[in-house]
């Protein structure tokens, strides 16, 4: 480990937390739980803070990013905080004209579609990451022994936005570029890997005790395309934090066929979405790989007895793996009743 001496994993007690123990393959006394997108629109206290403030401006305000990160920890008693930011923040910091349009997602001023577009991308100046490091440092000072998870987008998912110019259903333009101009593709993914890797490293050095690499849209690829044209760049992104010895979680949506290949990029823990049961995911990955997941977000709006039965089934199937961190199969839908999330935490800890 090359972490600073004052890092929470070294001297702050997060190493003994249920989350980090589970990420290392252990079975703590209670099942650790956190929720993807736990910081955000399901919380009235988040909506109040965000009034009149653009999403990316909020991400770059250390006081605000820290406060928003802490809100769900206070409210739900989850076993981890996840840093409030976005996968496109490091792109913006590298000079890309990107904004987050409410109700839509990341939108670019001009999409990146040609070799010339890729060649014009600039490297990320490490000094630009100062607001991120400060937001993380403020957060971990408040969290004590509760770990903070840092995160970043994987190169393919970033490229899915960069090439398309905005959210898309099938990421067709990105998947075309991959084959139509392999050299431009490699240059684009290599650039994205280093930008997103620097974003990850800044969060860990400032105090994050684990990281999650989101390759949300990678489920649109075949195993062959994934392994040959994408996986090497995901590995390159992770290489930026490998020497720090923190657990690396890797997650994508619709990745039942890709789990083994995604784990092979150097992930320690696999996040599983709700399209495949955890016992089957564990059979595919080998029982030694810790799993995270995979409550069906659609059931958050179902009557409690239906949801409770489902959560207990997820926990039961999670026993197939050496270790399990309870989470959703994807992010918290904005219309979710926050009390339901609190109830799931109580159930997991009971
Ligand atoms: O609690 C957490 O999980 C931490 C915060 C977080 C955000 N984005 C905040 C956010 C995380 C981990 C992300 C990652 C992210 N961003 C991903 C990967 C995770 C996933 O969901 O698959 C992706 C694909 C994005 C891109 C993105 N940013 C989308 C699709 C959207 C939603 C657009 C919308 O309005 O529906 C965003 C915006 C965004 N990122 C919001 C939040 C809280 C909503 C913005 C708002 O409050 O106005």
In short:
By secondary structure, the chain is α/β, with parallel strands linked by helices. Helices cover 46% and strands 11% of the residues.
Describe this structure in words.
This protein is of the alpha/beta class and 350 residues long. The chain contains 17 helices and nine strands. The strands form two sheets. The protein has a seven-stranded parallel sheet with strand order 1-4-5-6-7-8-9. A two-stranded antiparallel ribbon has the order 2-3. Strand 7, helix 15 (278-285) and strand 8 form a beta-alpha-beta unit. Helix 9 (155-164) crosses helix 11 (182-206), helix 11 packs parallel to helix 13 (231-239) and helix 16 crosses helix 17 (338-349). It is globular. It starts with 7 loop residues before the first helix and ends with a helix.
List the helices and strands and how they pair.
Elements: H1 8-11, H2 18-23, H3 44-50, H4 55-59, H5 62-76, E1 81-82, H6 89-93, E2 98-101, E3 105-108, H7 115-119, H8 130-143, E4 148-153, H9 155-164, H10 172-180, H11 182-206, E5 210-214, H12 223-229, H13 231-239, E6 248-251, H14 259-263, E7 269-271, H15 278-285, E8 291-295, H16 304-318, E9 324-328, H17 338-349
Parallel strand pairs: 1-4, 4-5, 5-6, 6-7, 7-8, 8-9
Antiparallel strand pairs: 2-3
Helix pairs in contact: 5-8, 8-11, 9-10, 9-11, 10-11, 11-13, 16-17
The structure holds coproporphyrinogen III.
């Amino acid at each position: 480990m090359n972490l600073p001496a004052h890092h929470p994993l070294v001297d702050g007690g997060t190493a003994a937390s249920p989350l980090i123990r589970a990420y290392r393959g252990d079975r703590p006394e209670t099942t650790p739980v956190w929720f993807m997108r736990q910081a955000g629109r399901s919380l009235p206290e988040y909506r109040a803070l965000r009034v009149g403030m653009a999403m990316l401006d909020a991400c770059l305000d250390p006081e605000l990013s820290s406060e928003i990160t802490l809100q769900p920890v206070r409210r739900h008693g989850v076993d981890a905080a996840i840093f409030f930011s976005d996968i496109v923040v490091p792109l913006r910091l590298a000079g890309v004209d990107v904004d987050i349009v409410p109700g839509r997602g990341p939108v670019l001023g001009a999409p990146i579609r040609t070799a010339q577009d890729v060649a014009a991308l600039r490297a990320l100046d490490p000094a630009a990451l100062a607001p991120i490091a400060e937001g993380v440092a403020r957060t971990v000072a408040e969290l004590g022994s509760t770990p903070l998870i840092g995160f970043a987008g994987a190169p393919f998912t970033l490229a899915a936005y960069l090439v398309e110019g905005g959210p898309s259903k099938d990421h067709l333009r990105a998947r075309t570029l991959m084959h139509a101009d392999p050299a431009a593709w490699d240059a684009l993914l290599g650039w994205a890997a280093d930008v997103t890797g620097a974003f990850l490293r800044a969060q860990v050095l400032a105090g994050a005790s684990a990281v999650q690499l989101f390759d949300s849209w990678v489920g649109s690829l075949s195993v062959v395309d994934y392994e040959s044209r994408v996986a090497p760049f995901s590995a390159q992104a992770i290489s930026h934090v490998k020497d720090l010895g923190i657990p690396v979680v890797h997650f994508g949506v619709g990745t039942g066929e890709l789990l083994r290949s995604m784990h092979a990029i150097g992930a320690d823990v696999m996040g599983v979405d709700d399209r495949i049961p955890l016992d089957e995911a564990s059979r595919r990955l080998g029982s030694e790989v810790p799993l995270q997941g995979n409550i069906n977000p659609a059931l958050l709006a179902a009557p409690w007895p239906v949801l409770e039965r489902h959560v207990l089934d997820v926990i039961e199937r999670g026993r197939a793996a050496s270790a399990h961190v309870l989470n959703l199969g994807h992010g918290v839908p904005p219309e979710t009743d926050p009390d339901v999330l609190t109830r799931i935490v109580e159930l997991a800890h009971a």
